Amino acid sequence: MAQLDGSRPVTISDVQELVKQKDELEAQIKACYELLEGQKGVGMNEPLVDAEGFPRDDIDLYQVRTARHNIICLQNDHKALMKQVEEALHQLHAREKEKHARDEAEALAEAMSQNQSLPQAFAKVNAVTPGSPASISGLQVDDEIVEFGSVNINNFQNLQNIATVVQHSEGRPLSVTVIRSGKKVYVGLTPKRWAGKGLLGCNIIPLQR
To answer: In this predicted model, what pLDDT tens digit does every residue of 141-165 receive, in sequence order?
Structure first.
């Protein structure tokens, strides 16, 4: 009977191997019981001598004794094997639980470090017109603006600050930094006249802090 090596972690294939051994043992025990049943149904406890104390001659005594002995040995093996299966499943479950907790802790730490390293946004894009300078630059709806040219969280007062920068930068690329899906993204935006209204073709709203 295979033993688990305590020096290495239990794997699912280890458990599968133990279950396979358990099934084989159970098949052997069943075969032994069937053999006893074939010997006048003597079972494990029926006497092997007749009423006068002589060995019974209606059954194969050797086969019965061997089957009974094998059943006892196999049941002991089965009991030990079931204990191994239980321990292996417990180890697997404990390791899975530990891995889940570690993954959660790592995800939390990563999210916290990202939040700490992300600058604070002061405005948000809530509309982008297809074909506009904003759309061509790659600006997207829900982008949170952290830098718009020279405007940032420290000097932003209202949307007129952005309008002023746009008017003074017509035809020249502006450096715009946004937060998109929890990541910092740089956009090169060139305000210019196009078929639509204004120089950008997007709508920006201030963020309420």
So the answer is: 999 999 999 999 999 999 999 999 9
CB atoms within 10 A of CB 51: 6
How far is Cα 86 from Cα 78, in angstroms, rounded to an integer?
A: 12
**108 token code pair:** 């939390």
The candidate with the shortest Cα–Cα distance to 125, out of 78, 83, 162, 79, is 162
- Dihedrals phi, psi of 117, to nearest 5 degrees: -85, -15
For 23-59, the pLDDT digits (tens) are 999 999 999 999 998 988 888 988 999 889 899 999 9
Structure tokens of 99? Answer: 């891995």
Prediction pTM value: 0.48
Angle at 144 between CA 140 and CA 146, to 5 degrees: 125
